[in-house]
Structures are given as C-alpha cells and as structure tokens.
Structure to design on (250 residues):
C-alpha cells in the first residue's frame, strides 16, 4: 500500500501470510505490487509462482506455447558498505552476488558470471563449505529505463540470513569475522560491492532463467562503513518509490 497509494485505481487485492499483492493502474499502465517477505527462500516461491501465473495454463497444468516476459522491479532498503554512498541515496544493482546457495539448485551456468564469482572467491578467501557464490547481471532494458545521475550503481551482495551471514554477532561466533571488510574493497570492472541484503541475486537469477527482466533498487538507510544512519528512513523510501513510479509510468 505504500506504493499503490499513488495509483489512480486499484482493481485487485489479496494477501496470504506475508505475501500481499495489489494490482492497479497508474497513468494508464497496469502494475502489480507484491510484498515478498525476507530471504532467497521466499523469492524462490514468489518468482516461480509469478511465472506460473502467466506462463502455465493452470487448468491443464501445461506450459503455454507463447510465453510472457515480465518486468520486475524491486524497491527496498539496505545498508551501504561504501563510505562514499551516503544515507538517503539510491543504489541500482548492476549485478547480484548470491552468497546463499538457493539458485545453485537450478542450472545456472548459462546466466551466471563466472568471472565475478571466481574473482570474489579468491579476493575474500571464501570457504567452500559455505557453497559457491553466484553472480547475475540485471536487465539492461530496465537499467536503461531507470538509470540517472541520481543513482549509484554497483554489486549487491545477497546473504541467506540477517545475522551471521551478514557478519553480525550477538552470542554466536561466525566463520569469517573479516568477511565484510574484505567485501568492502572488492572491485569488478569499476563496480564495488555497494550494499548487502537478502533478495536481489535470487530475483536476478530466477528472472534470467525464466525469461523475465529484473532490476533492484535500494534506498540506503544506513552506512556500515561510516556508522551513520538515515535521520528519516521513511522519507528516503518514499522518495525512491516516487522516483521509480515516475520512470515506469512516463
């Protein structure tokens, strides 16, 4: 509703657990907004079922002959890993770097960027017991639609959890306490790892496998490098929503 409150009209609304969906119109364009919940496991459900809605005949359970390609834009929040990406700024994920293993259940060799994967593994001395990271590019079509001089671009790392997988420590020790520091100075083709969250790489991977276009946008509400936080994170999110909707609807 934070997004659909800007729509001209709403034609459909439903909710099951954390998955809330609303479809409506903005300037004549039909747009569906979904809350996905947290983590690559939820994204696995959302992406496969979204695709099934448009590409599988639900009565016969057969794949349709003519497939539909969806445009999927994620709007979310995260913390920056780079000191020069301040709070309240916007980040576009040029690549998603999955640290979670979910996508490895699928056949991804044709869509993944092995050069990023191998350079990252070497740079951070990645423990193979945690599984092999995967790297997927965003949709060039959506990148061109959304980009501007207001947007930072970089690599978004997608973790499989919030605490240990993102280097946070409460009572439990973690496998590599220096992981975030090593990630901070990883560079691929002038792109740093800009932010760390829990969905982007999974969305990029499943979208690429299923033939959809995907792009992830984040409002930066904290900077882990400088230890600063947004004074008004809700405003930052609202401004990102407005920015994205204007780009989509114009």
């Amino acid at each position: 509703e934070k997004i659909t409150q800007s729509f001209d009209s709403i034609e459909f609304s439903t909710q099951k657990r954390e998955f809330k969906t609303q479809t409506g119109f903005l300037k004549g364009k039909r747009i569906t907004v979904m809350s996905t919940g947290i983590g690559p496991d939820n994204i696995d459900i959302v992406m496969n079922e979204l695709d099934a809605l448009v590409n599988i005949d639900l009565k016969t359970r057969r794949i349709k002959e003519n497939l539909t390609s969806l445009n999927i834009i994620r709007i979310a929040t995260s913390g920056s890993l780079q000191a020069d990406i301040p709070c309240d700024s916007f980040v576009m994920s040029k690549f998603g770097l999955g640290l979670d293993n979910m996508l490895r259940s699928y056949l991804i060799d044709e869509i993944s960027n092995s050069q990023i994967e191998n350079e990252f593994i070497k740079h951070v001395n990645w423990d193979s017991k945690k599984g092999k990271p995967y790297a997927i590019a965003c949709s060039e079509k959506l990148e061109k639609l959304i980009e501007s001089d207001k947007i930072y671009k970089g690599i978004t790392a997608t973790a499989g959890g919030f605490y240990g997988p993102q280097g946070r420590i409460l009572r439990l020790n973690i496998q590599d306490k220096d992981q975030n520091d090593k990630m901070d100075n990883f560079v691929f083709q002038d792109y740093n790892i800009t932010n760390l969250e829990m969905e982007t790489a999974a969305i990029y991977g499943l979208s690429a496998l299923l033939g959809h276009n995907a792009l992830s946008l984040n409002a930066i509400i904290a900077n882990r490098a400088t230890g600063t936080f947004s004074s008004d994170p809700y405003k930052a999110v609202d401004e990102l929503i407005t920015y994205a909707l204007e780009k989509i609807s114009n």
Summary: The chain has six helices and 13 strands. The mean pLDDT is 94. The radius of gyration is 18 Å.
